[in-house]
Design the sequence.
């Protein structure tokens, strides 16, 4: 996978993960063009399209479009499954995820994605393991936070 | 300074902005606050500030001033800081900025951190955006982690190694030892990422590929376990066990089995098993089947398996899910060359896909339909394709029209059908056809002698209906000009002859001249047509009137023609019948051959290559021009070059041969022919009155078929090399009309001792089947003694798996090629 974009029906970017080195300007250009192209598609059309020299796989979940750019030799149908797995992970983590969750907790959405995919490929095929890893990391984060607030509480910042 | 606002609060605030300007204001304010906070080197809130910056970056605002802060966060000991720091690095930094190299040391430390989640963060960042320098520095650490027993880290290290290899391929060797027992892991995450790593290595290095071939049995076993094992809740997707891993294994098997008989055989069974046992009700099952089909088609599988694969694709075509249909069409397009017959069975389904609503599916179906057209199904297929042409998007029309022409040319069951088909295309998609379709069609019509009456009648009727489609109008006016007499005499055999009078015909042609819809080219066609009718019709006066009117046309082209036709009426009336005689049969060139005369405007209507004994004019319009120029009818300098873009040399030669007693340098010279008429107009005048020879000013050495056997046809086209007239440049075009490609095609030639031969490199060594392409090769022959050219050729190629060799003598070179 070369990159993954999440955007709303109005074309607002909610998440962007790039697995190829591109400058900011180029990324913005690609994003703009691709968002336009995908939003122009009618609901009955198939989830795949050819764009530049890449294959684009996209799927709409409620108000969000999940869009992946894969290479020629990649399997489009399994990419749909990858997208679906990511949505399932978000759903399990946030509990019936909606767009607002991803807006307000975008950094968590990234963390989850980074436990599922690495360098554009799936690193873990078990839903349970991904969620467990995130849970543990969250715990670690909390532990790091608590000592400070305790000190603050007793006035010993 | 008050504590910076929290991330959530910022997001909430920004979302209340009602206009872009309001949002920009808020963002700018917050950025200023963040900047001053950064300046204060505040450790406590750095994390929060960077997180806010990342949000603003996603909205599209610049955030480069946060790059260094990300590095500081990464260097911090707190896990929260590291988490946001690495995220920021992945979002804001890339290998173009030197700043990123500062990360290297941090990452190195974190790769050896005591907490696996920190190690995980650094592996992830390195594997996502590590530059080549970073990869070089840290490859050793990654390799170490690849050997750890911690599966959480091992799987990440494997994918990180993939990234390292992609960035620095030379480091691939380094990871080889660590791959030794990757596949014996039980953990699916490690298995999956290991297969990805092995795939990457095999794709990049043939040595690695042969080294890893021995893993095939192990991979087959793993795949078998996945399929046979019972329900595993952890990896189950809609009843299928770990589809991601299955697909990756199938892909690796494809790479390992390609071109290798033993490996392919070892996987035959498991592929058949997967193909028959996988559930197809959900997308996930079809994803696996798709990968299986791709693998079967790529390796050396037995034919039964291949048929199974194509049938799976056939079933896909009937699936309700559009995505599946799309994928099927794409795969079938790849396999149609090699398994043509098997794909033919699904032809009707494919043709149905032409009616699909989705653009991508329609395009695929169209390409596939053209690939499937053959002599047997041409009538039925053409009906469908013409219907498709009617209703498709404009983007498709050009490609579809070209495809239809090609197919019609190859497989037309009868001339009438061919002409009807082309007419249908011109009437429905006339404005989208390629430029050369007009001359091609005219050539086709000219050569179908028995169809002249029918053709001109149909074209006339089409003109009555609609004069907006220029290619159609051009062909029609040309035909009416040529065969108007047949039209008026009502001689049509093929269908009910219509009653048309000369005046009606002239009305139509004149209508074209004045219509706003006609382009200048079309007008030129109709004027010439009217002129030609002066010898076929009796109402010469009317024609004379029309021609004289256009003598003062604003369009220079029309004006010139009209003036010259006028002159033809007035001064050279005795020549008019000869000049305007019927066109002879034209020899067909190899289409798109390099020596095609490309006259893109309508002036000369066809590629004239038959130079033998043409007492008639082959190009009345331009020849009339040349003629009158030569006769000094105008003061226009006779520039034959402009109307004759090729072969002035041989043309000069022609003239000189025929006119014998001119004291110009003998033999074909490259000096431009205009010098001939300019210096000797009187001789030419004499010559012309005694011999009608206005041919061949545009003469070219005609092409010839040198060899035609077993489906392999080799045509020679000729050019004279300008600097040295003794060198003939021959281009061979090899085409293959059989159903299988001819590979390893080698063309060799030998000539008698007095000649010298130079063979340049061929365009390729595969002659694709069904005339879908050609191999070209250039031969240069030096013939200083001007002897008759003879050649012996030897052809070797592999056809349907067996080698073929043939020798032949080529003796039918046209005289112009060696004189």
Sequence:
């Amino acid at each position: 996978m070369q990159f993954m974009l999440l955007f709303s029906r109005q074309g607002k970017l909610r998440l962007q993960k790039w697995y190829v080195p591109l400058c900011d300007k180029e990324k913005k250009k690609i994003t703009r063009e691709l968002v336009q192209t995908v939003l122009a598609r009618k609901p009955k059309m198939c989830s795949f399209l050819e764009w530049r020299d890449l294959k684009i796989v996209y799927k709409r979940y409620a108000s969000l479009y999940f869009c992946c750019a894969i290479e020629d030799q990649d399997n489009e149908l399994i990419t749909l499954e990858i997208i679906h797995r990511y949505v399932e992970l978000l759903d399990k983590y946030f509990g019936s995820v909606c767009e607002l969750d991803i807006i307000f907790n975008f950094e968590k959405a990234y963390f989850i994605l980074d436990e599922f995919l690495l360098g554009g490929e799936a690193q873990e095929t078990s839903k349970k393991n991904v969620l467990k890893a995130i849970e543990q990391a969250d715990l670690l984060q909390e532990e790091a936070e608590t000592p400070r607030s305790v000190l603050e509480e007793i006035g010993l910042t | 300074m008050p504590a910076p606002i929290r991330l959530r609060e910022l997001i909430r605030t920004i979302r209340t902005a009602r206009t872009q300007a309001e949002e920009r204001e808020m963002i700018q304010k917050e950025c200023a606050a963040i900047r001053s906070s950064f300046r204060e080197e505040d450790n406590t809130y750095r994390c929060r500030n960077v997180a806010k910056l990342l949000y603003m970056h996603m909205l599209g605002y610049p955030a480069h001033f946060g790059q260094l802060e990300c590095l500081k966060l990464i260097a911090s000991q707190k896990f929260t800081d590291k988490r946001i720091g690495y995220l920021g690095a992945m979002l804001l930094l890339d290998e173009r900025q030197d700043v990123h190299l500062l990360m290297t040391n941090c990452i190195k430390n974190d790769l050896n951190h005591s907490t696996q989640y920190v190690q995980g963060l650094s592996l992830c960042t390195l594997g996502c955006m590590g530059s080549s320098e970073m990869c070089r520095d840290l490859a050793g650490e990654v390799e170490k982690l690849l050997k750890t027993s911690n599966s959480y880290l091992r799987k990440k290290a494997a994918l990180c190694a993939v990234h390292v290899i992609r960035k620095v391929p030379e480091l691939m060797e380094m990871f080889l030892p660590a791959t030794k027992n990757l596949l014996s892991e039980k953990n699916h995450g490690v298995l999956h990422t290991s297969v990805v790593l092995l795939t990457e290595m095999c794709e990049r290095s043939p040595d690695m590929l042969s080294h890893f071939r021995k893993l095939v049995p192990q991979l087959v076993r793993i795949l078998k376990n996945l399929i046979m094992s019972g329900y595993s809740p952890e990896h189950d997707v809609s009843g299928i066990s770990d589809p991601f891993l299955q697909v990756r294994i199938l892909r690796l098997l494809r790479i390992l089995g390609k071109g290798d008989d033993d490996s392919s055989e070892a996987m035959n069974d498991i592929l058949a098993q997967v193909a028959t046992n996988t559930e197809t009700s959900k997308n996930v099952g079809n994803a696996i089947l798709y990968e299986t089909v791709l693998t079967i088609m790529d390796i050396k599988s037995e034919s039964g398996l291949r048929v199974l694969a194509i049938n799976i694709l056939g079933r896909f075509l009937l699936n309700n899910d559009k995505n599946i249909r799309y994928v099927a069409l794409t795969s079938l397009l790849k396999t149609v060359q090699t398994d043509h017959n098997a794909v033919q069975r699904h032809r009707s389904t494919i043709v149905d896909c032409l009616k699909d609503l989705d653009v991508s599916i329609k395009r695929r179906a169209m390409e596939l339909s053209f690939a499937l057209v053959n002599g047997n199904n041409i009538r039925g297929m053409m009906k469908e394709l013409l219907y498709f042409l009617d209703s498709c998007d404009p983007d498709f029309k050009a490609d579809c029209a070209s495809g239809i022409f090609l197919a019609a040319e190859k497989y037309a069951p009868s001339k009438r059908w061919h002409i009807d088909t082309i007419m249908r295309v011109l009437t429905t998609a006339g404005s989208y056809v390629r430029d050369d379709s007009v001359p091609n069609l005219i050539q086709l019509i000219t050569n179908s002698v028995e169809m002249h009456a029918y053709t001109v009648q149909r074209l006339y009727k089409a003109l009555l209906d609609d004069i907006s489609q220029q290619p159609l109008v051009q062909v029609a006016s040309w035909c009416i000009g040529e065969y108007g007499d047949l039209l008026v005499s009502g001689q049509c055999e093929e269908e009910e002859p219509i009653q048309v009078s000369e005046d009606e015909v002239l009305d139509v042609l004149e209508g074209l001249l004045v219509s706003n819809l006609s382009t200048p080219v079309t007008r030129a066609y109709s004027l010439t047509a009217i002129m030609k009718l002066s010898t076929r019709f009796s109402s010469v006066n009317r024609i004379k009137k029309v021609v004289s009117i256009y003598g003062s046309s604003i369009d220079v082209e029309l004006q010139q023609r009209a003036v010259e036709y006028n002159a033809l009426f007035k001064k050279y009336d005795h020549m008019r019948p000869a000049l305007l005689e019927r066109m002879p049969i034209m020899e067909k060139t190899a289409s798109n051959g390099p020596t095609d005369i490309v006259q893109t405007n309508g002036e000369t209507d066809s590629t004239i290559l038959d130079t033998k004994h043409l007492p008639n004019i082959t190009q009345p319009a331009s020849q009339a021009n040349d003629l009158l120029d030569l006769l000094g009818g105008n003061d226009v300098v006779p520039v034959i070059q402009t109307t004759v873009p090729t072969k002035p040399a041989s043309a000069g030669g022609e003239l000189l041969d025929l006119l014998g007693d001119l004291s110009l340098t003998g033999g074909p010279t490259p000096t431009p022919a205009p010098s001939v008429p300019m210096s000797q107009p009187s001789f030419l005048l004499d010559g012309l009155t005694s011999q009608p020879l206005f041919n061949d000013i545009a003469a070219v050495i005609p092409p010839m078929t040198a060899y035609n056997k077993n489906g392999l046809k080799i045509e020679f086209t000729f050019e004279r090399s300008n600097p040295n007239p003794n060198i003939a440049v021959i281009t061979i075009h090899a085409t293959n009309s059989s159903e299988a490609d001819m590979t390893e095609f080698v063309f060799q030639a030998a000539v008698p001792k007095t000649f010298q031969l130079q063979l340049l490199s061929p365009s390729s060594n595969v002659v694709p089947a069904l005339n879908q392409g050609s191999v070209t090769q250039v031969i240069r022959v030096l013939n200083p003694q001007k002897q008759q050219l003879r050649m012996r050729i030897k052809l070797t190629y592999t056809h349907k798996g067996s080698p073929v060799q043939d020798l032949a003598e080529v003796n039918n070179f046209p005289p112009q090629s060696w004189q």
